[in-house]
Amino acid sequence: MRIPVFAANWKMHKSGLEAMAWVREFALLTRELSADAAEVVIAPPFTAIAVAAEAVRGSHLTVAGQNLYFEREGAFTGEVSAGMLKAAGALSVIIGHSERRRLFGDTDESVRRKVAAAHGAGLTPIVCVGETLDERERGDTLAVLDAQVRAGLDGCSGDQIGALILAYEPVWAIGTGRNATAVEAGDAHAHIRRRLREWFGGAYAEHTRILYGGSVKPENIRELIGLADVDGALVGGASLDAASFASIVKKATS
Ligand code: PGA
Known about the structure:
This protein is of the alpha/beta class. The protein has helices at residues 16-29, 46-55, 82-88, 98-104, 108-121, 133-137, 141-153, 158-163, 182-200, 202-205, 221-225, 242-253; strands at residues 5-9, 39-43, 61-65, 92-95, 124-129, 165-168, 209-213, 232-235. It has one domain (5-253): TIM Barrel (Alpha-Beta Barrel), CATH 3.20.20.
């Protein structure tokens, strides 16, 4: 039984104070939610991680980073290491988000190194994969997913595969209001799980949580979470408002 994960990716939004207010409101709205019904993760910008980690203490929320650099320390101006995230209170970290790949030069190889760094620091990687609209229209979706999953997770042990989180986020669905249909999402998720079984072994692949991301909102979460291989959601825009994210989590778990 895979416990679903709902992760709020705040991107470049919210100060520490705003994060605290969000946590307070979310906790009130979800006080009926039983702790084993879902894992809920918030990913604030680096500057709000420590404050958010303090704010969630004693609740069922945990905190994630949105990115990391794979070196431990050194002359890397502007970068943050896995160990620093951990020390600030994060338990997991988003890696290879399509915005990082498209705007900041992340590649499958840097994703692989970041995943290894996260594991080295004891953080759970949340590894994002997904095809662009061009790739989908060319019929390359599954090949792109294969390449991203294979290269990004290369070197992971079976146990690490079972414990990490993948997020399938079709690039054309992120921030566009256009989510994948149930058939599109279902096919991609089933394909990814099939590959995990082939490459890493069924016993581990059954534990990997595969989240869907891309224009998830209260109106479409029920259909998505109903799919066999969808184990939660990575939510951007609709997670900025505590009430709408609470509504997503509640609809998915009721
Ligand atoms: P969105 O973003 O929910 O705003 O589409 C999802 C994501 O980028 O993780």
